[in-house]
């Protein structure tokens, strides 16, 4: 067939610091294919991937599963932790065991973490709370609820303020309960884009992977940006970024599969999910 038409590919970037290493050296203007970068909180990127107004995005792993028929995962990319994450935090007035039978406010910026909380509460802690969705404003949440869930930089900033709340790190609780790692974000591509612009997708995947590798070899520029834009100390951000895993290997995939299995058992996901990962020869298979 003829040449691929160079249409603009819309790519979503997570607004939170946790995704920075994969985006720090991702420079759309240096790529051959035309790219428009959209920076938003995860819940908005999720919606735009589902409605087709983005072709490629970092997004909530839970939202990938909801739209798995339309998506493929990009290889070797995720935001995961094998234990505490420091930025997925449930703040509560009372100890966790009591809070899980009260009222819980959920940030409207997340998909993975709100469902992770539901899994942990129902399956592990045997709680039965009432949930409501809220703007990510801790004070507002704690005025109205027994506990509040924040993610990303909202959680990080709240954790620095220490208002005497109990704090539960969901990455840590998941690890204690299952022994598994947890994948909060994945990078996905719409299948329609795999078919219509394979070269652009290849180039984008390469650019993400090389940004990740470059960031890994020297975190200093990213740490400095975080101190300047969010606050906190170099020491804090060094620990934060070194603790996050940006790969998507066997261990991360197993943890995510378990999360999807539990989500399906609780009726949070309609279908069982099989991870489908894009590769450079995906197109030949899609065409068959
Ligand atoms: C580690 C984090 O993971 C984020 C959590 C997400 C979610 O809960 O849906 C989505 C994307 C991730 O970047 C975080 O926000 O702190």
From TrEMBL:
<keyword id="KW-0474">Menaquinone biosynthesis</keyword>
<comment type="function">
    <text>Catalyzes the dehydration of chorismate into 3-[(1-carboxyvinyl)oxy]benzoate, a step in the biosynthesis of menaquinone (MK, vitamin K2).</text>
</comment>
<dbReference type="Pfam" id="PF02621">
    <property type="entry name" value="VitK2_biosynth"/>
</dbReference>
<dbReference type="InterPro" id="IPR030868">
    <property type="entry name" value="MqnA"/>
</dbReference>
<keyword id="KW-0456">Lyase</keyword>
<protein>
    <recommendedName>
        <fullName>Chorismate dehydratase</fullName>
        <ecNumber>4.2.1.151</ecNumber>
    </recommendedName>
</protein>
<dbReference type="InterPro" id="IPR003773">
    <property type="entry name" value="Menaquinone_biosynth"/>
</dbReference>
<comment type="pathway">
    <text>Quinol/quinone metabolism; menaquinone biosynthesis.</text>
</comment>
<comment type="similarity">
    <text>Belongs to the MqnA/MqnD family. MqnA subfamily.</text>
</comment>
